[in-house]
Amino acid sequence: MKKFVIGVLFGLLLALAPFAYATSKIEVDLFPVKLWLNGEQKKLPEELAILNYRGHAYVPIRYLAEQFGGKVSYDEREEAVSVSLAPLPALPDPYTYEMAERNGDLMKRRPDKKKIETFVRSVHEDTEDWIRLTSHTIEGDPLIESLIYDSASKNIHYIQDRSRDRFGSMAIMAVSCKRLEDAKAGEGGSKYRLVGCDGYSREIDLISFDK
């Protein structure tokens, strides 16, 4: 499970002010693009910049890690950078429908089946992956479900976050499940559910798709 969060940092520039270390010089271009994190636009401090090198965008790793509640340290003796992240990145509050959709969540109101199919494929290939499903109450409060595949235990960790539901339980619940299956809803549709879950229910219905 540890890979799924750290994976978002791969390919980022090791820009660790005030530390500086380089083995060679490269030519890069400033890349003045907008930066969105968890559906919320972020503005870099004036002393930082996003760079373009050979078609790849590089973001200062200290800034990015701290936005996810993490910490970055540099060991001068070992010439090593360490990134320590919280178990799950914190989402903005409020977390509106528009923010969740922009953030790539699988929106239950207008679901994109390809997103859950990609996650199912990762599970079948024993590749660590995660997906977040988001819906909203009538009042606009987000109901968030996260699925995290852990290749070490072969389990799918399910986290149900209702902490922003002002008129609900406002609770966070987490269980581990053995599999994610397509129950094949009527008339050729699909109904995905988790089975073999502990501590809550043996089965958890997730989302349905029409034919």
From TrEMBL:
Record-linked SUPFAM superfamilies: Copper amine oxidase, domain N
Assigned keywords, A-Z: Signal
InterPro entries documented for this protein: Cu_amine_oxidase-like_N, DUF4362, Mao_N_sf
Keyword field contains Signal: yes
Keyword flag rRNA-binding: no
Signal peptide residues on this chain, from the entry's feature table: 1-22
Residues of the Copper amine oxidase-like N-terminal domain: 24-82
Protein name: DUF4362 domain-containing protein
